[in-house]
Amino acid sequence: MKFRRVCFFLPSAHKDGAELSALECLDALAALGLQCRVVIPQKGPLIAELESRQLPYKLIPYKVWIEPPVPVIKSLLVALWNLIMTCWATLLAACWRCDLVITNTINICVGALAARVLGLPHLWYLREFGYEDHGWRFHLGKKFSLGLMDRLATVCAAVSRAVAMKYQAALPSTPVHYLYQPIQVDLSQSADLVADKSGLQLTCIMVGRLQEGKRQEDAVRALAELRDQGLTVHLWLVGGGDRNYHNFLHTLVRENHLETRVRFWGQVENALPYIQQADVLLLCSRCEAFARVVIEAMKAGKPVIGAASGGTLEQIKDGFNGFLYEPQNYRDLAAKIKHCHDHPELTQKMGTDARKWAVQTFNQANYTRELEKILEQLK
């Protein structure tokens, strides 16, 4: 490997999916013999993980350049601020004597600009669609920003084929490869009892931020449909999120008289015990780039019912490790849940198949090997 030191830019110091995936990437880079230095915009729980890996890090308060629509004046001020932060990042990468820069998301650009100033190769990790999944818009406009990305990226790695296809069309001069995360799950953890499931026939679970794009409302409406058919199905919603959407969901539950069948667990440190005690994971998102929780559930032996869009189409093999349903069609979702309810042996078999497939496909050895191939293309 010709590279020695990597300057790795993260969008935040949270411990959400993008940050957990970044840790897996950093572990793979270390396995390949590269020394990594991390740059984050603020303090957060991720710092403990970096320190446990003895990874040096610095804080540079750069800002995102893509988010839900904002006033023009804010876009211009953010652009100016990020140019100032680029000077800081450039000096830092030079002092660290880095010879490769990696940006862990499309929503920051400071690392890419610093790499260009220093003449270093830049790997841009594409973990999001942008607009389709989050409703984000580039501050400086789509055409200009994608053109800039095309000039600043030496190569791109996307979390799914779907994301790779979108950006390969948008970045004609830049090679874009898809690279599945290993998504490590510690199944040695004992699942502490989190709820009394006695008498429950089928428990579905959704894990993730409560927000409109995740479409938890579809699961609630599907539950009402199943209740009207005389089925006893319960739904666990694990995750915090947008207060307005949280209130909307509670109202929807009350209006459909589902208070005894829907439980809100709120934000939890570790969702795995909840997944282990549920029967089926639901993924109702409008368009996921690639959902970590799907593979986490599969590695825990659970089938997944997901909306047939985005990267979910690559994760769920219909009838093998779960079911696909028409996005935003809660009646179709209800039909798939009913099939699991009526055929418990099939549901269990899909969970077993899901575990075998996920373990074989999403592991650190595969990931490190494919990442090395991508790095070998950098000049």
Features:
379 residues, 2 domains, 44% helix, alpha/beta, 6-stranded parallel β-sheet, Rossmann fold, single chain
Structure description:
This protein has 379 residues and is α/β, with parallel strands linked by helices. It has helices at residues 17-31, 46-52, 72-95, 110-118, 131-134, 142-152, 161-170, 216-228, 243-255, 272-277, 292-299, 312-315, 330-342, 344-361, 364-375; strands spanning 5-9, 35-40, 57-59, 66-67, 100-103, 122-126, 137-138, 155-158, 176-178, 202-207, 233-238, 262-266, 280-283, 304-307, 322-325. The strands form three sheets. A seven-stranded parallel beta sheet has the order 3-2-1-5-6-8-9, sandwiched between helices. A six-stranded parallel beta sheet has the order 12-11-10-13-14-15, with helices on both faces. The model has no long low-confidence stretch (mean pLDDT 94).
The CATH homologous superfamily of the largest domain is termed Glycogen Phosphorylase B
Q: Helix/strand/pairing class, anyone?
A: alpha/beta
Compute the number of helices. 15
State the major sheet. 7 strands, parallel
Strand order of the largest sheet: 3-2-1-5-6-8-9
Task: Specify the CATH architecture of the largest domain.
Answer: 3-Layer(aba) Sandwich
The residue-averaged pLDDT reads 94
First-last Cα distance: 12 Å
* Strand composition percent: 15-25%
The residue fraction in helices comes out at 40-55%
Written as H for each helix and E for each strand, in order along the chain, the element string is EHEHEEHEHEHEHEHEEHEHEHEHEHEHHH
CATH domain topology of the largest domain: Rossmann fold
Number of strands: 15
Overall CATH class of the largest domain: Alpha Beta
How many discrete domains? 2
